[in-house]
Amino acid sequence: MKEHFFINRYLKYIKKKLNEFSETLKYIKIKNNLSQICLVVPPFSEDYLKSFNFYNDIKIFNSFLNEFSKVNKVTFIDLSNIFEDNQEYFADTEHLNLNGKEIFSKITYKRCFKN
Fold this sequence. Notes:
Layout: H1 2-31, E1 38-41, H2 46-52, H3 55-71, E2 75-78, H4 98-113
Parallel strand pairs: 1-2
C-alpha cells in the first residue's frame, strides 16, 4: 500500500514539473519572440555510460523527451551518441574537449537553425 502511495505522489510531482516546464517554454518563446526552441541531449562518453550502467534509461528518457517536444512544438535533437566511436572528442568521462565542443556546436546549430 505504501508503495502505491509513493508512486502516485511521485507521478503527480513529475506531472506538475512537466506542466511548469511547458509553461516556461511557452513564456520563453513569447517573451523572446522566438519561432523555434531546441531541446538538445549532449553526447555521452562510453566510459560515462559504463560507469553509471544506465544506457537503457537514457534511451527511455530520450524517447520521452522526443514526445514531450512534439507536444510542446519544440525541436528535439538527440546527439547522445554522435561520438560513440570517437572517444578522442572527450576531455574526460563527462566533458567534451575543444575539438568535440566545436563539432557538437556546429551539428547543434545546423540541426536546430538550418531546417
